Structures are given as C-alpha cells and as structure tokens.
Amino acid sequence: MPGLPGDVRITVTRTLTKDQQARRTRLIDAARELALAGGYAAVTMHDVADRAGVARATVYRYFATKDHLLTEVAALWAAQITSDTSAATTGDTPAERLTALMARIVEVAATELTLTSAIIQAVTSDDPSVEDARTALFLQVRDRLAAAIGEPVPDLDEVEILLGHVLLAALVSLTSLGRPVEEVRGMIATAGRLITAGMLALQNEPA
Fold this sequence. Notes:
By secondary structure, this protein is mainly α. 70% of the residues lie in helices and 0% in strands. The longest helix has 23 residues, at 181-203. The chain starts with 17 loop residues before the first helix and ends with a helix.
C-alpha cells in the first residue's frame, strides 16, 4: 500500500492530549463508516482523512497502515459489542454464558457483514504494524470470555486462547465463507459445550 513520500510512517505511542485523542477517535470513526458502507476496499487513508477533516499525513501520525487503523476499529467494535455485560452473565453454567456471549458477537457481526469482513481481513493481516493492536484486541476479548466463564478453571489461559480461535473461525465462516448465521451460531454452541465439558473434566480429576 502506498504511504507517505519516502515511505515514512510514524505512529504515536506517547500519551495523547485531549485534542489528539479526539482526532484519533475521529479517524477511527471515519474508517468504521467507510468499512461499513463499502468493506475493506472502501477504506483508504486518503478517504479516511477527508471524512475526518484532517490532512492525509495526519492519519499516519496515529496509524502506520490501513490494517493498523482497521485493527483499532476492530477493538472499538468488539468493546461496544461486549460492553453489555448481560450477555456474559446470561445462563447458570459456563457453557450457557459463553454461548450467549459468542452468539451476541456473531449476531451483531452478521448484521454488519461488510464491516466485519473488513476488520477480519485487517486483524489477520501479516502487516507487522498490526501486531500490538491485534494483541491488545485479543487480550480484550479473552477478558470478556473469562468473565463469561465466571469461575476458576484449570489452564484458563489455554481455554481462553482456544475460545478466541473458535470465535475467530466463526467470524471467518460468516464473512469469507458466507455461511448462514444459524449454522455459525450452532457451531459456537457446540464448541462452547465441548470446551466447558473438558474444563469440568479437568476440575474433577484427582489431584
């Protein structure tokens, strides 16, 4: 992807001022609006800058690449979807709570397929500038999944990672593979039951 003259890209890592944070938020919102309207291809740094009302060079002060920017869009998207804690507390068992949370994410993703497809393409990119934002996103999702489990379990880190992969596979199935939302919901329900059954089996093993 073409960048600035000489391919100079600077991403801000210092603490942002109030005005800088507002500008960064406008850029993320602009990218989200473009992705929602036209998918991955519709998001260009030039159009993001125009929509946010800033110079193109300003975009690169906050985001090294388009995929970096869209991964930050993904983080905001995931936070908004999971901010309603009712889904994570629906059900009496870890399996029921996990299924409710992941089903909510899948259902929202299915209503915003162009946006979902764009952020999945960015998050799974091999672009090195995505790495830190992707790690932060995955940790955020893992925290929500752990909250849904709601009780101490053996090897929780491994369980969270596995659930994260299941969720990613579900979103890829919706977007890249075009599978029906009912099928994807069934897939995550089955996965949730199997994974939590494995957790219970580990808990009941003799010390």
